[in-house]
Amino acid sequence: MNIIDKLYERIDKLGFVCVGLDTSLDYIPDEIKEGKSTSDALFAYNKKIIDATKDVCAIYKLQIAYYESYGLEGMLAYKNTLDYLRDNDLLSIGDVKRSDIAASATMYAKAHFEGDFEVDFITLNPYMGMDSIEPYEKYLASGKKGVFVLLRTSNPGANDFEVLDVNGEELFYTIGDRLKEINDKYIGENGYGPVGLVVGATHSQEVEKIRERYKNMFFLIPGFGAQAADSMNVYKLLNDLNAGVVNSSRAILKNWMNYDDGKTNVGKYAREKTIETYKEISKNANI
């Protein structure tokens, strides 16, 4: 089974939530950090989150900046977390947002699709052009790996460039159309290909058009948690509650902080927030 079909079936079984492991020492109770190195503390916290949520989410996303900020110790925690996910047959996204060309892009692909930092999907930035995407295609063609490419992001600065006029349409549609050409070469059994798009749920006027235009593409959907996007926007980016994963990071990771007994129940409250996220979005199916 190729990777995009595996993700599709995981969502069908466990729901569309993507747990973001954007882990900072600031989020970790002293009881977990005590006596541990930085790498061990980060991994111990991630393990608690994973163990508590692995049957109620589809995939995990690791924002690499959080781990890079702790140097070698952080990157060891990154590796150990990825190993743990793989050992448990769980899916992973390396949120690395790479953008380079030729030999450099080839090395980035090797770094994140093979070896110590191997993941199932990575995020890419397309603004250097299609030759920044092409070096990843051999991995896409194998059926074993996928990418999520920035399209319509949820940050306020997205409007600086993404909506610039190109032949009467916003620039991001030109990017999406070019990426669709690659995706359509590798459509899997469930009707989707391995080139996904990062589409924020904060742009309510665009979500239906984007979903309709890119029917055969998976979406990585940020913006629902800390950025408080409307749940209906998120629902409209999905397709029958599939064809996309909805990322929530801090809202899940820090949920324990809202409870008096949170320090000793990190996993419990992460699980509750993950389930709550699914219910809040999926209720729109009945409206």
Automatic annotation (TrEMBL):
It catalyses: orotidine 5'-phosphate + H(+) = UMP + CO2. It holds the Pfam family OMPdecase. Residues 16-269 form the Orotidine 5'-phosphate decarboxylase domain. GO terms for molecular function: orotidine-5'-phosphate decarboxylase activity. Pathway: Pyrimidine metabolism; UMP biosynthesis via de novo pathway; UMP from orotate: step 2/2. It is an enzyme of class 4 (lyase). SMART domains: OMPdecase. The active site is at K97. Gene3D superfamilies: Aldolase class I. The keyword Protein biosynthesis does not apply. The keyword Glycosyltransferase does not apply. Its EC number is 4.1.1.23. Keywords: Decarboxylase, Lyase, Pyrimidine biosynthesis. NCBIfam families: pyrF_sub2 (TIGR02127). PANTHER family: OROTIDINE 5'-PHOSPHATE DECARBOXYLASE (PTHR43375:SF1). Belongs to the OMP decarboxylase family. Type 2 subfamily. This is Orotidine 5'-phosphate decarboxylase.
